[in-house]
């Protein structure tokens, strides 16, 4: 049996002790190691498999961590983590208390910049390069960015700035023609032309026009090419651009052939590569409820269009694309553009359903305010992945949306309790609302099997009574109501507890609130969003307005960043799981 070289490598300094001829063996062992762990622990697979040779080459040629390496998004950083002191704990990846699935500054000095959202690497690396120059430090600064991420506006802004400096910056384009879904747009078409001509025709390209020293495209799986070019670029000053061609999922046949599915495949057989079948469920993902309902509505209303920034599959907008391709728009990783595009469409009487993950909508905040709400344009925002999302951690939790949206004039904010409510609010929104609306719903499956019922219109600003009571009122919004209902099943004195689904974070149901304030001296609000400025804060504001003299306790996401773990683990950590709610209600029931 041949020696396992990866076993002897803890840090890049160990890697640099190897001969160049040994690097392909390390690449094979590193791929096998990632496949072995992710097969059972889950995580992002294809992106890391695609950059194994590039990862090894960068740490082999550059003096990391003295030289600063920035990964864009971070889906592809598993090999980097394993080679930088975390091999022995890699099995804890994305688990509660374990290492993060993304680069994280507090985790390692080799993680020079925390990421999770795309297109930040060039700006960050440029900032580092300028700082090194001002402080007269001799360092290399490398940003690795994918072809899907480089099409984002922020990446273009950084390229525009960097090209006007003499900063010692190397931008490496990891070009595999796919992000989570296949890359889209004119830049993708342009990169395809460059790849096909291999520089025979394209003597001057867009990156050279931006004053970068461009080289490539080269084979990102060929160590001889990679090492030679990186070594050459080390000797060149100023902004440099290396175009590297890779295959996402390289080394696992199924991951190469089905790159969308194997971006994050869940558990799979590490020998065959086949994804393991998941336990069959009668329930439907909220994403699919959205996607299928949108198609149904679009069949009835020809003015409906769908917009998503590079999340066709994840948001289930793929259903709309398959049925109405001419009315479905994947704009790439460009949340700002997606929002203002929707606004432009709304001015011409189209009905845009703009589906953006809650955490990513944060990137388009100015556009929500100025381009949509200020002009009172009836854009329908569908905020997928609202609340705690689990193992992706702090960069992906959708816990700030209620707080950052409810302060915007003209904007309705709604959180459906279940699949039927989601279906009905989507129906209601396209009936002719005269203002914008944001609909937030979680990742994963609901709890209702027969949700495809005839549509019913929802009255704006009206909550519902889920359970009558006479001592304590619980006010919830969204699917966290399920935790409340489950907790109340264990309460003996059931007639004491009332439960209200407020549904609308804005506008609040003030008529219902006045009744609650009159009837109850103890109110508990529960949300899966931040307690600072969120739903509970809105209830406190209303209580002040009506001079409510009782006690209100707000349960939700505390004023701290919540890291990774399962949703159940994180809800427990935040005190909004079933048992925590039961404990809180029991305390007030018997002690107040």
CATH class of the largest domain: Alpha Beta
Tally the structural domains: 3
Total DSSP E strands: 17
What would you give as the CATH superfamily of the largest domain?
A: Thiamin diphosphate (ThDP)-binding fold, Pyr/PP domains
Oligomerization category of the chains in this entry: single chain
- How many helices in DSSP terms? 23
Major β-sheet profile = 7 strands, mixed
Shape: globular
Rg, please?
26 Å
- Detail the poorly predicted runs: none
At the fold tier of CATH, the topology name of the largest domain is Rossmann fold
In what range is the share of β-strand residues? 15-25%
* Mean pLDDT over the residues: 92
Structural class: alpha/beta
Sequence of strands across the biggest β-sheet: 7-6-8-9-11-10-15
Residue share in helices? 25-40%
Could you outline the blueprint of secondary structure elements for this entry?
Blueprint: H1 12-15, H2 23-41, H3 46-50, H4 52-61, E1 68-71, H5 78-86, H6 121-134, E2 141-146, H7 153-162, E3 169-175, H8 186-197, H9 206-209, E4 213-219, H10 223-234, E5 240-245, H11 253-257, H12 286-300, E6 304-308, H13 318-323, E7 328-330, H14 335-347, E8 351-357, H15 358-361, H16 365-373, E9 380-384, H17 401-405, E10 412-414, H18 419-429, E11 437-440, E12 464-467, E13 472-476, H19 481-488, E14 497-501, E15 504-506, H20 510-519, E16 522-530, H21 535-545, E17 551-557, H22 567-574, H23 578-591
Parallel strand pairs: 1-2, 2-3, 3-5, 4-5, 6-7, 6-8, 8-9, 9-11, 10-11, 13-14, 13-16, 16-17
Antiparallel strand pairs: 10-15, 12-14
Helix pairs in contact: 2-4, 4-10, 6-7, 12-18, 14-16, 19-23
């Amino acid at each position: 049996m041949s020696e396992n070289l990866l076993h002897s490598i803890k840090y890049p300094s160990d890697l640099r002790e190897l001969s160049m001829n040994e690097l392909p063996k390390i690449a094979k062992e590193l791929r096998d190691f990632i496949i072995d762990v992710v097969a059972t622990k889950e995580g992002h697979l294809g992106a890391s498999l695609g950059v194994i040779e590039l990862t090894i080459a960068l740490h082999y040629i550059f003096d990391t961590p003295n030289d600063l390496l920035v990964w864009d998004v971070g889906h592809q950083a598993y090999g980097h983590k394993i080679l930088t002191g975390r091999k022995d704990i890699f099995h804890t990846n994305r688990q509660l208390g374990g290492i993060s699935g993304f680069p994280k500054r507090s985790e390692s000095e080799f993680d020079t910049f925390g990421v999770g959202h795309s297109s930040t690497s060039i700006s960050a690396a440029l900032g580092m390069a300028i700082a090194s120059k001002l402080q007269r430090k001799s360092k290399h600064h490398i940003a690795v960015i994918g072809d899907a991420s480089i099409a984002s506006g922020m990446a273009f802004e950084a390229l525009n700035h960097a090209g006007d400096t003499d900063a010692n910056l190397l931008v490496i384009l990891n070009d595999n023609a796919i992000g989570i879904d296949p890359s889209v747009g004119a830049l993708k078409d342009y990169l395809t032309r460059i790849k096909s001509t291999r520089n025979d025709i394209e003597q001057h390209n867009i990156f050279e026009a931006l004053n970068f020293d461009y080289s490539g495209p080269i084979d990102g799986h060929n160590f001889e090419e990679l090492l030679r070019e990186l070594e050459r670029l080390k000797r060149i000053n100023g902004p440099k651009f290396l175009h590297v061609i890779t295959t996402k999922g390289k080394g696992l046949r199924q991951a190469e052939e089905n790159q969308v599915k194997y971006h994050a495949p869940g558990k799979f057989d590490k020998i065959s590569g086949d994804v393991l079948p998941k336990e069959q469920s009668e329930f439907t993902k909220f994403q699919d409820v959205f996607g299928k309902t949108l198609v149904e509505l679009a069949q009835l209303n020809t003015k409906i269009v769908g917009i998503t920034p590079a999340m066709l599959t994840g948001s289930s907008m793929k259903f709309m694309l398959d049925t109405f391709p001419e009315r479905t728009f994947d704009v790439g990783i460009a949340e700002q553009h997606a929002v203002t595009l929707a606004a432009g469409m709304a001015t011409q009487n189209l009905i845009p359903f703009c589906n953006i993950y809650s955490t990513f909508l944060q990137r388009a905040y100015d556009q929500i305010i100025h381009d949509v709400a200020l002009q009172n344009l009836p854009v329908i925002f569908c905020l997928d992945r609202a609340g705690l999302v689990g193992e992706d951690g702090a960069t992906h939790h959708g816990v700030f949306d209620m707080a950052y949206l409810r302060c915007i004039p003209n904007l309705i904010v709604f959180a459906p309790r279940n699949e039927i409510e989601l279906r009905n609010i989507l129906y209601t929104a396209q009936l002719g609302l005269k203002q914008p609306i944001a609909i937030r719903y979680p990742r994963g499956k609901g709890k209702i099997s027969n949700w495809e019922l005839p549509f019913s219109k929802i009255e704006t600003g009206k909550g519902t009574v889920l359970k009558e009571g006479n001592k304590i009122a619980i006010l919830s919004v969204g699917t966290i109501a399920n935790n409340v209902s489950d907790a109340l099943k264990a309460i003996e004195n059931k007639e004491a507890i009332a439960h209200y689904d407020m549904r609308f974070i804005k506008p609040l149901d003030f008529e219902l609130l006045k009744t609650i304030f009159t009837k109850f001296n103890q109110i508990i609000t529960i949300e899966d969003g931040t307690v600072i400025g969120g739903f509970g804060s809105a209830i406190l504001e209303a209580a002040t307005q009506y001079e409510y003299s009782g006690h209100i306790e707000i349960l939700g996401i505390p004023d701290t960043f919540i890291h990774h773990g399962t949703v159940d683990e994180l809800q427990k950590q935040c005190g909004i799981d079933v048992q925590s709610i039961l404990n809180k209600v029991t305390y007030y029931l018997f002690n107040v």
